[in-house]
Amino acid sequence: MAMAPTVKVVLGSIAFAIFWVLAVFPSIPFLPVGRTAGSLLGAMLMVVFRVLTPDQAFAAIDLPILGLLFGTMVVSVYLERADMFKYLGKLLSWKSKGAKDLLCRISVISAISSALFTNDTSCVVLTEFILKITRQQNLPPHPFLLALASSANIGSSAAPIGNPQNLVIAVQSKIAFGSFVFGILPAMLVGVVVNILILMCMYWKLLSSAQKDEEDATAEVVADGDVISHRFSPATMSHLSSVNSPEWNSRLESVNMQSSPNMSGQVNHVETLRNRINSTENEIHSDSSSVYDSARNSSASKEITNDASSQKRDETVSSRRIESMDRSRDLSPMQFSSGDFATKWKRMLWKSCVYLVTIGMLIAFFLGLNMSWTALTAALALVVLDFKDAQPCFEKVSYSLLIFFCGMFITVDGLNKTGIPSALWDFMEPYARIDHAAGIVILALVILVLSNFASNVPTVLLLGGRVAASAAAISAADEKKAWLILAWVSTVAGNLSLLGSAANLIVCEQAHRAPHFGYNLSFWKHLKFGVPSTIIITAIGLTLIR
Question: Where do the Citrate transporter-like domain residues begin and end (predicted)?
């Protein structure tokens, strides 16, 4: 493609530069409007500067990608309501055997969940679970947060629905879902294992010392188990009931009803007995003698005498009260338990339907059905099965992300119209052919640098068609391989620095803002691990992609 006129090139570059600055640095002091507004601003400038016409701008928006993204987000919302991510959180701490075991679990669960539910979703829901578990077990959080973010990025590379750039590649390349998965799966599995080994090597001493501290503190943890479970366990733990609760009131009434017949005159003393429990918090004695012993003053004696004299008169009324209370005591638990049983089974049935619809969606993907309409169909099926107003669930969808994509599509298309990306690729193409090893290395380095400089989704939009066209000139198999290499490298490149992917930023922000468990994952801590991990895992994965 020939270069556009100089004015269009300059204005298009300015519009893209503004988009890039706001996308990479959303809180920049002179214009802290955020990524979404930045993408819309870049798109608007492309039209205002006449780099694109309004019709070209609308045509640049890729509706299939937006439909697939929206559908998967709705499905993720319903999976969260169905406690899927709570179960994943519980798996992290179930029969854990120490710090190294926990690190492996986090890496594996994060990778698998990211491939199925997107890496951003997994990082959002698992970060606080990890902070709770590490605090409970007295472990340093940062190796586990690094394991979460890096494994989420690596795992998401194996599926078209794993991350936004894979969605773009899947739609543009038209590679079948199954072919995409099996083409990258070996690289993903080996990459997760290598990532665990790198984390182990870098933090072996820290994890070992933390495990010794955990063993030394075992007795204290067991002794204070209730408090720790309540504070840090994902499951909700209930406290003991207070003495003024309905549970204690029912116990008092049952004690009064179970007393001997000559206690029938003491129905009026239930309040006195309750006050005695409030002051002493001791055991409730069903014995009649304990009540008489506590009432040794003269006024109590007079009250007992009066109760005895009126016993015959009130005998019928009291016995009827007791029978009525007996019947209510016998019937109420039955009624409540049957209601709870029905509610429980309705909830279980609904959750099973959510899981079945999700599995059906994945099967449809593997069968090669249109991914966008499949995801939308699954989302609407869950809305119908829920049989409620879907507004609360739709409110949880990230519409700002959808709008960001719309603006980004227009902005990137405007940059393409300037001819700058084509000129740069024409210069690089002879050195980046994938029919020899040196070309693959150069192509990977270009993708790696651009993904961290311009973000991975714009990189895919800028390079995808050009890399695929160059590879298609060699063979159809090489075209598919070029798309898969682009998916692998652009995704793993997100592990290089904290700013490399949205998943990293999500983990950082979630950890910083988590109530009671806040932790600051710094840029340099991430970079120290990210550089060697990204280079090694990218290189190994390139040899396994077919």
Answer: 27-493
> For the packed helices 63-81 and 99-117, what is the interaxial angle rounded to 10 degrees?
130
Residue indicated by tokens 């390139």 = 542
Q: What are the tens digits of pLDDT across the range 262-293?
A: 433 433 443 443 444 344 444 434 444 443 34
345-366: average pLDDT:
94
pLDDT-based confidence at 378, cuts 50/70/90? very high
DSSP letter at 95 equals: T
Per-residue pLDDT tens over the stretch 441-486: 999 999 999 888 878 888 999 999 999 999 999 998 999 999 999 9
CB atoms within 10 A of CB 275: 10
Which residue in 133, 148, 146, 154 sits closest to 203, CA to CA? 146
Q: What CA–CA distance (Å, rounded) separates 536 from 528?
A: 14
Q: Which of 371, 503, 364, 505 is closest to 70 using CA atoms? A: 371
Q: Is 95 left (phi over 0), alpha (psi -120 to 50) or beta?
A: left
Chain CA centroid to CA 93, Å: 16
Indicate left, alpha or beta for 297 from its phi (over 0: left) and psi (-120 to 50: alpha): beta
Decide: 408 and 19 in contact? Cβ < 8 Å: yes
Q: What is the dihedral angle through the alpha carbons of 409, 413, 414, 417, rounded to the nearest 10 degrees?
A: 180
Q: Give backbone dihedrals phi and psi of 107, rounded to 5 degrees, phi first.
A: -65, -45
pLDDT of 97: 79
Model confidence, pTM: 0.71
Contact status, residue 76 vs residue 396, Cβ threshold 8 Å: no
Calculate ∠ Cα 110-27-145, nearest 5°.
Answer: 20
Alpha carbon 352 to its chain centroid, in Å, reads 20
Alpha carbon of 197 to those of 92, 147, 176, 192: distances in Å?
19, 11, 32, 9
